[in-house]
Amino acid sequence: MEQGDLFLEAMDRKAKIFARSVRATVEANRELCSWVLNPLARWAEEAYGSDIFDAAAHGYAEYCVGVAKSKQIYERSGRYTPESMPEIVSGVYEDESYMVPYMWAAILIYPFWPSMIGHIAMFRDDFLRRLPRNATVSELAAGHGVLSLLAAEERPDIQVESSDISPPAVAVANRLLAASGHSGRVQFVVKDALNGDGGNDGRFQGLISAMLAEHLTDPKPLFKTISRQLSRDGMVFFSTALESPQRDHVYEYNQESQPLQMAENAGLRVSRMVSDAASVPPGSRFLPRSTGMILRSR
Ligand SMILES: C[S@@+](CC[C@H](N)C(=O)[O-])C[C@H]1O[C@@H](n2cnc3c(N)ncnc32)[C@H](O)[C@@H]1O
Question: pTM for the complete prediction?
Answer without folding.
Answer: 0.98
